Amino acid sequence: MVIELHDPADPRLTDFTHLRDVELRKSLEAEHGLFLAEGEKVIRRALQTGHPARAFLTTPKWLTHLADVLENQVVYVVSDALMEQVTGFPVHRGALASFERLELPSVATLARRSKRVIVLEDLVDHANVGAIFRSAAALGVDAVILSPRCADPLYRRSIKVSMGAVFAIPWARMDDWHGGLAALDGYDTLALTPDASAVSIDEVRLGEKAALLLGSEGDGLSSRWLDQATERVRIPMSPAALKNGVDSLNVVAAAAIACHSLVRPSSAGSAPS
């Protein structure tokens, strides 16, 4: 059902308002159990992975691009100017859609079903979370587990940066940070750190199940998680980098490299101590 709207205050547009207010959007989306997808490719991925659509918001010229998936859907059509007025920014990819969130699996369920997982502790940047999901999905990681305070993978910015990869890889959120790693019993847990005393990640032989722990953008992993890990691992920096005071990569780059090591054949290197 295609409906033309002309009033930015129309209550039917509520799902698509205040998109620049991160804190307000987080509370609204949590309260109503929804998330937003932006752009044709991401919207299609959300639909393909079984997320029920609530409504679509688009401009006339983008109707034909999504015509095959809009049948029996609620579609609000607005002008370019009204689109920007409602959302607070130019929507270059032409369409937004609001979706209902699916129930997440438990951490224990994901741990039981998976062999290679990454665990994110307290990352606050939605773009970083989205980029890490994209690397994890591309490189063959089985699942992602988040600490309770980690940024939301289904926040619009996360989804956009991941190019929909957040729909391609299972994920779960811990209920409890303090004892959260207990669900990974039976896993080799590798804590990524710039500490020079840590083992190079390429030298570690991985068991049947392995989890890579990644810490927050500023402080890295907490001392508690570092102490609980099976092994502390690092990505070696070049001598020139170390000489110039560069001892680590940003968390997105580090995650991509470490994910590649995580999924490599387990025959290389030496077993964790």
Automatic annotation (TrEMBL):
Keywords, A to Z, come to:
Methyltransferase, Transferase
Q: Which InterPro entries does the UniProt record give? A: Alpha/beta_knot_MTases, MRM3-like_sub_bind, Ribosomal_eL30-like_sf, rRNA_Methyltransferase, SpoU_MeTrfase, SpoU_subst-bd, tRNA_m1G_MTases_N
Give the RNA 2-O ribose methyltransferase substrate binding domain ranges. Answer: 36-105
Q: Name one GO cellular component term.
A: cytoplasm
Which Pfam families does this UniProt record tie to the protein?
MRM3-like_sub_bind (PF22435), SpoU_methylase (PF00588)
Answer whether the UniProt record assigns the keyword Cytoplasm to this protein: no
MF terms from GO for this chain are: RNA binding; RNA methyltransferase activity
Q: Which domain of life is it from?
A: Bacteria
- State if Methyltransferase is listed as a keyword: yes
Entry's Gene Ontology BP terms: methylation; RNA processing
The UniProt entry's sequence similarity note says: Belongs to the class IV-like SAM-binding methyltransferase superfamily. RNA methyltransferase TrmH family.
Give the Gene3D superfamilies listed for this entry. Answer: 3.30.1330.30, 3.40.1280.10
Listed name of the protein? rRNA methyltransferase
